[in-house]
Amino acid sequence: GKSAFFLVTERKKLHTAPVRQVFRLRPFHVLVATGGGYVGYRKYEDYRLEELEKRGIEVPVKLASEWEVALYKSVPTRLLSRAWGRLNQVELPTWLRKPVYSLYIWTFGVNMKEAAVEDLHHYRNLSEFFRRKLKPQARPVCCLHSVISPSDGKILNFGQVKNCEVEQVKGVTYSLESFLGPRVSTEELHFRQASPGNSFQQQLVTKEGNELYHCVIYLAPGDYHCFHSPTDWRVSHRRHFPGSLMSVNPGVARWIKELFCHNERVVLTGDWKHGFFSLTAVGATNVGSIRIYFDQDLHTNSPSYSKGSYNDFSFISNNNKEGIPMRKGEHLGEFNLGSTIVLIFEAPKDFNFHLKAGQKIRFGEALGSL
């Protein structure tokens, strides 16, 4: 009896060891399978939407319900983005660089012919590769038009701001005030004094007869990740909203109302020759860090911020009454991966955009002019 029991337990041991190993591997396999499946699904969805757009078929808007947004926001995207940021900083052995970057280039259709350094071995880590600079002649800056594209990307939407609402994609809006936050003090920006009947939108417009315009540019992961000044203007104020880090790709922008108001963003405000001007860099999943070159105090996706709050920084001081003057085309900042830039600015009624929604655009090309 004893020997039979011994045999059974021995047999059990033999059977349990491999099973335990399988269980040890399973979470990783599940993560890879679900992650890969989701990426595949999103790719297919994006491809389907692009095909419909090409055929001129209107894509119906299907908004997420409150519980879906809450569920999405419960995913620790900030934590994941910080982990991704750390991973990006890890130096890759020279032999691994070419295969890793080549896979990325193939997946996202990166054009390395435009890169200042085409040799893949030169980039020590993913972060350096993402933030690669372009050859100087790769992006000529248009001199004829007053506003140029600050980055490479896809035009999601543009037009006049109406009823204090801005469209993130056709048919899906967000509130101008939730996006920019409360008005900055009048000393910093030459705002019209607020009269009780004026809406937030009217308070931003400084000159009689002007309108407020907006333009949304989506940077895909394969796009050049730096952004530049879209016009000659003066930056007087920075507001940083910590927020979530949800994906900002066009499919999600079509699904979640006020997406850009949920997400971490850096709002730069100031003025140009026609009045109010602002550029907002919106963070996204895996884009934990937004850098503004002239703003050393800015730290995005840091664990110490509480969501819903924002912090302000003024570039106007006793020593500097002018703020930060930016020339059209000048380097302004960078993302660690694809993301979104939103321009909201004041201009006379005869301002015209030279764009089509959904078109591709490159840094330096015209957005619009008078």
Automatic annotation (TrEMBL):
User: Where are the Pyruvic acid (Ser) modifications?
Assistant: S339
Where are the catalytic residues? D152, H228, S339
**Record topological domains on the Mitochondrial matrix side:** 1-24
**Cofactor(s) needed:** pyruvate
Q: Which InterPro entries match?
A: PS_Dcarbxylase, PSD-B, PSD_type1_euk
Annotated site, Cleavage (non-hydrolytic), chain positions:
G338, S339
Question: Which GO molecular-function terms appear in the entry?
Answer: phosphatidylserine decarboxylase activity
Q: Does the keyword Transcription regulation apply?
A: no
Q: Which GO terms describe its cellular component?
A: lipid droplet; mitochondrial inner membrane
- Might you name a Gene Ontology BP term for this protein? protein autoprocessing
Q: Keywords, A to Z?
A: Decarboxylase, Lipid biosynthesis, Lipid droplet, Lipid metabolism, Lyase, Membrane, Mitochondrion, Mitochondrion inner membrane, Phospholipid biosynthesis, Phospholipid metabolism, Pyruvate, Transmembrane, Transmembrane helix, Zymogen
Which Pfam family, any one, appears in the UniProt record?
A: PS_Dcarbxylase
Q: What does this protein do?
A: Catalyzes the formation of phosphatidylethanolamine (PtdEtn) from phosphatidylserine (PtdSer). Plays a central role in phospholipid metabolism and in the interorganelle trafficking of phosphatidylserine. May be involved in lipid droplet biogenesis at the endoplasmic reticulum membrane.
Q: Of which family is this protein a member?
A: Belongs to the phosphatidylserine decarboxylase family. PSD-B subfamily. Eukaryotic type I sub-subfamily.
Name listed for the protein in its UniProt record: Phosphatidylserine decarboxylase proenzyme, mitochondrial
